[in-house]
């Protein structure tokens, strides 16, 4: 089978490397660190299966266009992708489906919407949670205890000054507290099949969960506090009712559904749905899948997902190495050294996320420079989280470029919890 992966980050590198176990793989556009990267558009590429990584092209209807041309596609159409590109619609769907989620209200940018949003804030206790309804690369959510900051954020979003059109419709939510966990299910339009492992992302830029939200600075799987039985319970709470509700609305959802939960003292609550694999969550989930991934995704794309997903008990930890200035203004063009040494650490895989070719246009390039905010995803694998974590950080220490930054506490709590639960 020939598979065309669409996208250009670490998630797509992980897709390509796992799919390549059983299939021929090209990646469009890919990047200078991903073998098989091609410059032709998906529409111009011949392949037996298209796997679309990021939310942007999905929301933009790429899956619809490819399907209209008779191609087999893993990824929802624009209708289903609205679960992520319109948080207002997502909240309506999951509320109709009976999925437990934070109380909320939505507001538009007209004068009445502004007034109603400010008035609604006044009725809520802190923390205040204000979300752009549209896509904002994981950065459109403000959680704050300061009411004045919440009011200012409502104005900046609705005015379009902070997130352009993505913020002209907002969702204000009840603030919740608790640990977070992400789960993934493959959907074939009728059924949702769970990837039976929980993943925890670390979204803030700084150690100790400080500083601004990012696309994700590292993650870990599995989790001692969310075992396989707990995964199945969360899945039953969210995936099945949502797929039933989507079917009722004539949405034929074929692709991955990513559910982010908060485990609150009152029980689990759905925070968000994404319509694609998480990045970097995919990097610690996909390599542990023991099925033939190409067959699995092709089955979902064809509406015939029958297999259970088998996943290794191994742990994986991913540490994101980022460019100086990320997330506000990452600097690019710095020369990356130590990649071969990092890849030589046993149990380590390094996926290329935001890189450019150091030697001109060659792809894959022997020498790489930084080319984006999140540059490399350093993944350690081992029999438990502590070993996986040690391996990942051992490899991180081999890498260098001017201004390279990373969190030093990825999976620290989970490694301790795993040790205690043994
Ligand atoms: P989202 O993109 O909706 O997952 O939100 C990004 C992050 O904001 C989440 O991972 C949470 O850490 C936080 N967040 C979102 N919604 C809430 C909420 N209702 N209460 C508290 N924190 C939240
Ligand atoms: N890492 C968070 C996301 O992919 O949305």
Brief summary:
The chain is an alpha+beta fold. Helix content is 30%, strand content 26%. Strand 15 and strand 16 form a beta hairpin.
Total helical segments: 13
Counting helices, strands and paired strands, the structural category is alpha+beta
- Beta fraction: 25-35%
For CATH, the homologous superfamily of the largest domain is named as ATP-grasp fold, B domain
Whole-number mean pLDDT: 94
List keywords for this structure.
alpha+beta, binds adenosine monophosphate, 422 residues, four-stranded parallel sheet, binds glycine, D-amino Acid Aminotransferase, Chain A, domain 1, 4 domains, Dna Ligase, domain 1, Rossmann fold, 26% strand, 13 helices
Walkthrough of the structure:
This protein is of the alpha+beta class. It folds into four domains: about 70 residues, 3-Layer(aba) Sandwich (Rossmann fold); about 70 residues, 2-Layer Sandwich (Dna Ligase, domain 1), CATH 3.30.1490.20; about 140 residues, D-amino Acid Aminotransferase, Chain A, domain 1 (2-Layer Sandwich), CATH 3.30.470; about 110 residues, Alpha-Beta Complex (Glycinamide Ribonucleotide Synthetase, Chain A, domain 4). It contains 13 helices and 21 strands. The strands form six sheets. The protein has a five-stranded antiparallel β-sheet with strand order 11-14-17-21-18. It has a four-stranded parallel β-sheet with strand order 2-1-3-4, with helices on both faces. It has a four-stranded antiparallel β-sheet with strand order 5-8-6-7, sandwiched between helices. α5 crosses α8. The protein is globular. About 50% of the residues are buried. The model has no long low-confidence stretch (mean pLDDT about 95). Bound molecules: adenosine monophosphate and glycine. The site of glycine has 8 residues, from loops.
